């Protein structure tokens, strides 16, 4: 079970989403920034694998040019 949540005024709204085996959840645009996501420990019933892929935002690259250059350098290394 994946739980999406966000804070509105003074309370937290949680939205449970059933994630079947081999499911994929893509969070884009506003959802990436407005919603938190988590799998609660109590919902883990067996081994799970989580893969996260992100792009660096233009703002991050502009504000952190040295760090961004190093991240891009490391990301371009072929194994």
Please explain how this structure is put together.
This protein has 79 residues and is α+β, with helices and mostly antiparallel strands. The chain contains 3 helices and 3 strands. Strands 2-1-3 form a 3-stranded antiparallel sheet. It starts with a strand and ends with a helix. The model has no long low-confidence stretch (mean pLDDT 87).
Q: What is the rounded Rg?
A: 17 Å
For the residues shown, what is the average pLDDT? 87
Would you identify the regions where 5 or more consecutive residues have pLDDT less than 50? none
Strand content: 15-25%
Note the total helix count.
3
- Shape field: flat
Report, as a whole number of angstroms, the end-to-end distance: 34 Å
Key terms for this structure?
single chain; 79 residues; alpha+beta; 3-stranded antiparallel β-sheet; 3 helices; 29% helix; 22% strand; flat
Chain-wise SSE layout:
Elements: E1 2-8, E2 11-17, H1 29-34, E3 36-38, H2 58-63, H3 65-75
Antiparallel strand pairs: 1-2, 1-3
Provide a short characterization of the protein structure:
With 79 residues, this protein is α+β, with helices and mostly antiparallel strands. The protein contains 3 helices and 3 strands, in the order ββαβαα.
